[in-house]
Design a protein that fits this description.
Layout lengths: L1 H18 L1 E2 L2 E9 L10 E9 L3 E6 H7 L1 H13 L1 H4 L11 E5 L2 E2 L2 E7 L4 E8 L2 E8 L6 E9 L2 E10 L2 E8 L17 E7 L4 E10 L6 E2 L8 E3 L2 H13 L1 H8 L6 E4 L21
Parallel strand pairs: 5-17, 9-16
Antiparallel strand pairs: 1-15, 2-3, 2-14, 3-4, 4-7, 5-6, 7-8, 8-9, 10-11, 11-12, 12-13, 13-14
Helix pairs in contact: 2-3, 5-6
Length: about 290
């Protein structure tokens, strides 16, 4: 019995160590997404951060990164200490119910994509309304066709590639000098880091704006989402729920928390307490 317990403990420890891979690079992207086909002039925009290691990557919002990254937390504490005298005057208190953060383009996309080449999986975790959901699927194999075109992005000489994923054709630019086969969102599999990509319909785009090399051993490629409090669903169910939330956020929240009164915080227009509904929802993955 003692031998069995030891084997189980060692196996768990090995798996845990594999998951805690040190971050090598952090890449900041400007993300633009025509989520509502009825309003193409008002795309959803956000800053996203890809943390890449040798065998894994994490792609998430800058907000989620800033609230969980050891380096970002240290920096935020330093800034808070300097601004402590004026902090009280700038504090906003929400009274009467949970806070729903939105933008002029609708509800925010709070999501994390975690790729593990070791396990051959891509895990999606997202907060939809006031509930967390997640699912895991095999890592997609994208049949990229390499081109000869080159251009400079963020100081790196990039090469063009074209590939199909999720019912869309993507044009991507990758860096052979940074041999990490990851990229924004679920795009992966090229012989170098993807710094820019867009679908041929010009409905989705990722553009690198900053690359930093990590020197902090505490910066690990680990999931920020607490899957212990998350509902595991099928991919199609996740997409269905995400579409319902984007189309009618208030109805989704009322279904999740009956009798609640939701407070709204608009990051683009602080005085606007309305929530934009998506008329013609355009999922990132069409199939």
């Amino acid at each position: 019995m003692k031998r069995y317990i030891t084997v189980v403990f060692v196996s768990f420890l090995c798996l845990n160590l594999k998951a805690q891979e040190t971050t090598i690079l952090n890449v900041v992207y400007d993300f633009s997404y025509t989520r509502d086909l009825a309003d193409p002039s008002n795309p959803y925009k956000s800053e996203m951060i890809l943390s890449a290691g040798q065998s894994g990557s994490r792609y998430t919002t800058r907000d989620l990164f800033n609230r969980n990254s050891p380096a970002a937390i240290k920096l935020n504490k330093q800034r808070e200490a300097k601004e402590s005298s004026g902090a009280a005057a700038n504090t906003t208190v929400a009274v009467g119910g949970p806070m729903l953060t939105v933008s002029n383009a609708g509800t925010l996309i709070n999501e994390e994509i975690f790729i593990s080449k070791t396990n051959g999986t891509v895990q999606t975790a997202g907060r939809i309304g006031f509930k967390n959901y997640h699912f895991s699927v095999p890592l997609p194999s994208i049949n990229w066709k390499l081109g000869n075109e080159q251009k400079m992005i963020c100081g790196y000489n990039c090469q063009k590639a074209v590939g199909d994923f999720g019912g869309r054709t993507f044009e991507a630019w990758f860096v052979p000098d940074l041999p990490y086969s990851f990229g924004p969102w679920k795009l992966n599999g090229l012989p170098g880091l993807i710094l820019s990509a867009n679908d041929t319909k010009n409905e989705i785009s990722f553009t690198c704006k900053e690359i930093t090399k990590n020197s902090d051993p505490e910066e690990l490629i680990t999931s920020y989402m607490n899957l212990g409090r998350s509902v595991e669903v099928k991919p199609k169910e996740y997409q269905r729920v995400a579409g319902m939330f984007a189309s009618d956020p208030a109805a989704m929240v009322e279904a999740q928390i009956s009798g609640t009164t939701v407070s709204v915080r608009n990051l683009d227009s602080p005085g606007d307490k309305s929530i934009k509904k998506i008329t013609r929802y355009n999922p990132m993955e069409l199939k």
